[in-house]
């Protein structure tokens, strides 16, 4: 059996001065149970910004869970991407390791992403852990890399592998700045793909691109996934899921600019050719026609009770507490709004996890 775990970073701006007084009493879930809103990390009191963003998870073969996120400690030392680990199904976490910049002297600053190699690849065995993240100077001026790190010891230690992409910066959202954001890794057809948000093309304030590698060391030229003709349109934040029952892929993104960051999606049989697919606005099929805005995340999971192998597409957004779910065809009128009782947050992530308590 599986259950879905939804992890959100939190952002409690009104609570900066009196944080402890503002936070809802934390639940203390039992190991391997279902729960919501379980806080396990607060920034240090002297953090430059008292928040975290882009929480991302991974489950290892031993069923432990890893979490990482973007944070803003006072520097030095240079910012790194934390790795916290849970061995009780996410009820409690403790600090485990950290992905530190080993090559740029800038720190691992933004948008970490964790991935497990589903096959032997690039000289590493199946099950090897990969981490992508954005490395940029604290000043945000002087360049930006999306970098790839690997762990051969279940996240205890990390080593630099390659630069996935480079931009000249500055690393800000100002149009014309050659910035890079939000890597998302996925294997397809013997290639590792890295999707990301790309401000380097002078024809677009921002577009969505991907690059591929067949050896983890050298990466292809960028290929468009979403690029709108209006310069100020800013599609952002690619995530992709494989729908095993249909063999199709779905990507979600926010369509900022003329669509006010409304969540959109594309489907394609070839996830290297999303550019040829038409983006569809994702709208709930409730009577209110609920529209999710900003920072979407998509997964697909098979339904263990389905003999045909069909399942469910699950989409989270930044603006809603509920998630939106759909059948495997991603029918535009099939997006059901489903309350899951979890706070909304900027760039929540989703993962199906297994637990010993419910395994057969
Ligand atoms: C967590 O552990 C790592 C590795 O031991 C260390 O570098 C880092 O400073 C620790 N983080 C915190 C918040 O204690
Ligand atoms: C919404 O879509 C779901 C399928 O995901 C379907 O079961 C449900 O009937 C739809 N609701 C409405 C009001 O159309």
Automatic annotation (TrEMBL):
<keyword id="KW-0732">Signal</keyword>
<dbReference type="InterPro" id="IPR036278">
    <property type="entry name" value="Sialidase_sf"/>
</dbReference>
<feature type="signal peptide">
    <location>
        <begin position="1"/>
        <end position="21"/>
    </location>
</feature>
<protein>
    <recommendedName>
        <fullName>Glycoside hydrolase family 93 protein</fullName>
    </recommendedName>
</protein>
């Amino acid at each position: 059996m599986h259950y879905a775990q939804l992890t959100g970073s939190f952002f409690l701006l009104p609570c900066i001065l009196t944080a402890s007084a503002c936070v809802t009493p934390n639940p203390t879930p039992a190991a391997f149970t279902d729960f919501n809103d379980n806080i396990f990390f607060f920034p240090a009191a002297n953090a430059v910004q008292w928040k975290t963003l882009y929480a991302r998870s991974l489950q290892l073969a031993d069923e432990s869970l890893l979490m990482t996120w973007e944070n803003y400690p006072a520097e030095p030392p240079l910012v790194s991407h934390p790795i916290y680990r849970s061995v009780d199904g996410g009820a409690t976490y403790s600090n485990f390791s950290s992905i530190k910049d080993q090559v740029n002297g800038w720190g691992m600053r933004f948008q970490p992403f964790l991935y497990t190699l589903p096959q032997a690849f690039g000289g590493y065995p199946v099950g090897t852990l990969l981490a992508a993240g954005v490395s940029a100077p604290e000043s945000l001026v002087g360049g930006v890399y999306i970098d790839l790190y690997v762990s051969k010891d279940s996240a205890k230690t990390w080593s630099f592998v390659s630069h996935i992409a480079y931009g000249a910066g500055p690393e800000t959202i100002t149009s014309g700045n050659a910035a890079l954001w939000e890597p998302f890794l996925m294997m397809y057809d013997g290639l590792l793909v890295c999707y990301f948000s790309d401000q380097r093309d002078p024809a677009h304030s921002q577009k969505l691109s991907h690059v591929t590698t067949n050896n983890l060391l050298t990466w292809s030229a960028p290929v468009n996934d979403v690029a709108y003709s209006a310069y100020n349109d800013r599609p952002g934040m690619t995530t992709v899921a494989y729908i095993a029952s249909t063999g199709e892929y779905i990507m979600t993104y926010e369509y900022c600019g003329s669509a006010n960051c409304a969540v959109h999606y594309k489907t394609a049989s070839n996830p290297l050719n999303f550019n040829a697919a038409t983006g569809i606005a994702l709208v709930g099929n409730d009577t209110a026609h609920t529209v999710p805005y900003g920072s979407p995340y998509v997964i697909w999971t098979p339904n263990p009770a389905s003999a045909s192998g069909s399942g469910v597409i699950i989409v989270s957004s930044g603006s809603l507490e509920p998630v939106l779910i759909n059948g495997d065809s991603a029918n535009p009128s099939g997006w059901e709004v489903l309350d899951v009782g979890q706070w909304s947050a900027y760039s929540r992530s989703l993962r199906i996890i297994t637990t010993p308590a419910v395994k057969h």
